[in-house]
Write a structure and sequence with these properties.
The protein is of the alpha/beta class. It contains eight helices and 17 strands. The chain has helices spanning 13-21, 47-54, 69-78, 94-97, 120-126, 162-185, 218-227, 293-299; strands at 2-7, 25-30, 35-37, 42-44, 59-60, 82-86, 104-108, 116-117, 131-138, 148-155, 201-202, 234-238, 241-254, 261-263, 268-271, 276-285, 291-292. α1 packs parallel to α6 and α5 runs antiparallel to α7.
Amino acid sequence: MRIVFMGTPDFAVPCLEKLIKKGHDVAGVFTQPDKPIGRKQVLTAPPVKVCAKSHNINVYQPVSLKKDNTALETIKSLNPDIIVVVAYGKILTKEVLKSAKYGCVNVHASLLPKYRGAAPIQWAILNGDSETGVTVMQMDEGLDTGDMLLVEKTPIGIDETAEELFDRLSVIGADALVKCLDMIENKSVIPVKQDESKATHVGKITKELCPVDWKKSALEIHNQVRGLQSWPCATTLLFGKNIKIHKTKLSNITADNAGKVVDNKGKITVCCGDGKCIDILELQQDGKKRMDTKSFLAGNKVEIGTLLGE
């Protein structure tokens, strides 16, 4: 099929690569404008742009599809059979949605209608879900409200982080996409309407979610650490200084004082609000590199009885 691809971050790259590998004609790629990154604010191209350029595919970076009158004309001039959208990050106009023979399809990283909107991967882990997946849907004017064309499910590991799940779902999404395109071309796809009564919406991940409340259960805190990895990361205070918690594990130890350190042998075991504990296995002090807790303890004395969060 002749395709216009719209996507921006790392998550979208496997989809683009898979389309190219399967022999689809990617006529052009739309992605967000280059942005300044890091402390030095170096102007950096989105991962999708880097991928497209490596395959000599023309790249377009309009600031807005609504305000840029040339964007729609460019899409029409490329004459796509279908427009594929994967984490593009911009609203598509009604005219764009109808500008291709088969319209626009979107690869969304949740089991719709659950987790419409931003950050579905992080929220699935934050909420302690044991299963997630990818939905390929026909786009309409709503936010992730279109008919479902293909759904692929996958379990979430008890220690799996959002970062790890991102990587897995990006590959699952790429495979689902090419499978769905074959079904569309063969006219074997059966659109399924979403059940609005089961719809949930989630917002962006913010740093307000970072501080750990040790009065919560061990599982809730473990999910918080996993869900906010690798950005913005769960945080707590240790000796009055902020630390990021990168990796935890549920412990078999029980105790009775939320936030209290109950073991410091190669790890920091902390009591939580339900009397259960978690092991902090990797952490990071402000201004320093991420390290395993054993190495941290070699240079920092954390006594049993120390209270975190104060």
